[in-house]
Amino acid sequence: MASQKTFRLEDLSKIKKEDLVGRISLLIDEDEYFHDRVVKFLKDEFLGDNYSDFSVFKFDSIDSFDDLGVVSNCSLIRENRLCILDNVFSSNKDENKRILEYVKELSSKDDSLIFLFIEKDRKYSKSISSKFKEGLNIFSFERLKGSSVQSFVKYQFKKAGKDISNSEITYLIDILGYNHRDSKVSLQNILNYVDIISSYSNDKSIKKSDIDANVEKSLDTHAFTLLDSIYNDRKNAYSILEDLLYRGESEYRLLALMLSNLELTLKVIQLKKKGHNHIEISKILGVHEFRVKKALSLALNLTDVQIINSIIYGYEVDENIKYGILTSKLAIELYMSKLFVEFR
Question: 20 to 30 Å CA-CA from 103: which of 41, 85, 238, 323?
Fold first, then answer.
């Protein structure tokens, strides 16, 4: 039997039925979109076009090995069967070992049965990989980046019968925070928003207003917008603040993000003066280009001194909160009042 094989997303179209027969499959990814893609692929390629509900078995826990035995005993119902084991492992190492042993035994006896392990936890996926040093197909997909994400979004809107410009796609991806470092936003999340926005819009083309009406911006984006409004539109700034607090956002967390964004803006200004562009600045500071662009936009209106003073005010307010001199609500309003004066 051939050794382990690793497949990327672009490899799916190249995999043949003979690559699957008699082998265990392992999907290592947290994104449900990839789960659906791999399961659909296995159904189409291994089971064929006319598979039924009796051909596919899915378990999110193994209460008894009789459960898995049923899968093996169903060979008379249909020739090929797919058994999906979705995050079935637990902290019980002995139980996990028994599951692996039993799956290995069933797989070795029946080429018409294939197993797919879906594992989010890397330590469990390593256990599977170690157990099946031979005959394991590993599906491991990297997070989409750059033009790949753009193409994905455009294609999904096209499937929904909608047109969308590249600038609107960039805006949607940015406010969802998909490209942010440590982002938990998945392709499945994006796909859900594509469905919502497409259903909402009565026009052929998706506009920015359609996105704004259906997508909640990240708090980091709101913090930048708030700083921009403090400089440009005092009334709107208070409206943004009240809206965020009404929805239960923490005043202290918002203050921390405002300070973080001001500190980032100061660093961006300094690097810009040295001749670096936004892509280079992003790499030097280790932050996403989206945040760098936001900082550059804010920097157009402010001097180094204004930003430094604003950071100092922020830390003074932070101390007043910590020592109970001011409530967090009063503190953030006082901070904004000081910024109104500083940003004039």
Answer: 41
DSSP 52-111: -GGGEEEES--S-HHHHHHHHHGGGT-S-EEEEEES---S-HHHHHHHHHHHHHHHHH-T
Which residue, chain included where needed, has tokens 């910590």? Answer: 322
Sheet holding 81-86, edge to edge: 5-7, 136-140, 24-28, 113-119, 81-86, 56-59
**Counting Cβ atoms within 10 Å, is residue 172 exposed (0-12), middle (13-18) or buried (19+)?**
buried
- Are residues 32 and 108 located together in one domain of the fold? yes
Q: What is the pLDDT of residues 15-58, one digit of tens each?
A: 877 777 777 888 877 788 888 888 888 888 888 776 776 788 88
Domain end position, chosen among 118, 140, 162: 140
Token look-up 């943004």 returns: 240
Q: What is the pLDDT of residues 282-320, one digit of tens each?
A: 888 887 777 888 888 888 888 899 999 999 999 998 888
Number of folded domains in the chain? 3
